[in-house]
UniProtKB/TrEMBL annotation:
Residues 49-139 form the ATP-cone domain. This is Transcriptional repressor NrdR. A zinc finger (unnamed) spans 3-34. It holds the Pfam family Zn_ribbon_NrdR. Negatively regulates transcription of bacterial ribonucleotide reductase nrd genes and operons by binding to NrdR-boxes. Belongs to the NrdR family. Keywords: ATP-binding, DNA-binding, Metal-binding, Nucleotide-binding, Repressor, Transcription, Transcription regulation, Zinc, Zinc-finger. The gene is nrdR. InterPro entries: ATP-cone_dom, NrdR-like_N, RNR_NrdR-like. Its cofactor is Zn(2+).
């Protein structure tokens, strides 16, 4: 670690402490040349992959966009906010653990559909109708059959 005062690269760690939250390490250091002391912090840096859009452009991952898509599909559906938060965390965890530096919007869309299918079948159909660009009733019927919502005729 270089000294911020004289740029000498021989510094000594005097004290190491874990933060109260446990998410960083604080180190007190002393420069071997100028003898000045300074503090450094070590934190985990998680980098989300870039998103590759259909037109080939690349953009940074935005959690707000994911939340917006889920909220739109789940509008007026009986799904609690903690369940939505858990779904977002699950999707983001899959993106992080994929090890990929770039992911297609299609991959993210598939992850969203998996979570919506688990959370709420109607929200899943809503999202799928836009995501898969349904153009006729047969495609809706196929999606409904896919989630197992075919109902048996009621006895009258």
């Amino acid at each position: 670690m270089k000294c911020p005062f004289c740029q000498h690269d021989d510094t000594q760690v005097l004290d190491t402490r874990v933060s109260e939250e446990g998410d960083s390490i604080r180190r007190r250091r002393r420069c071997g040349k100028c003898d000045k002391r300074f503090t450094t912090y070590e934190r985990i840096e998680l980098v989300m992959p870039y998103v590759v859009k259909k037109n080939g452009s690349r953009t940074e991952y935005a959690s707000a966009k994911l939340r917006g898509s889920l909220s739109l599909a789940l509008r007026k559906r009986p799904v609690a906010a903690p369940a939505v938060d858990a779904a977002i965390l699950s999707i983001e965890e899959k993106l992080l653990t994929s090890g990929q530096r770039e992911v297609d919007t299609g991959y993210i869309g598939e992850l969203v559909m998996q979570e919506l299918q688990r959370l709420d079948k109607i929200a899943y159909i809503r999202f799928a109708s836009v995501y898969k660009n349904f153009e006729d009733l047969a495609e809706f019927q196929d999606a409904i059959a896919e989630v197992g919502q075919d109902r048996k005729p009621r006895k009258g």
